[in-house]
Amino acid sequence: MTDVFTGWMWNIGLFERAVIYPIMIGHALLGSSVAATQRHRATHPLAPLTARANS
User: Could you please report the per-residue DSSP string of the chain?
Assistant: First the structure.
């Protein structure tokens, strides 16, 4: 319907996908990096604060 109202001969869905796909990919990458960080911290806990301050 947007094509009819604007008179553009372009497929407006193409523009919508070009905008939303990078956002979706960014969210997927952010989520996977957060999950990987949580897994790493669960298997390698941080040293106590006093040990880190002395080093």
Answer: -HHHHH---S-HHHHHHHHHHHHHHHHHHHHHHHHHHHHHHHHSPPPPHHHHHH-
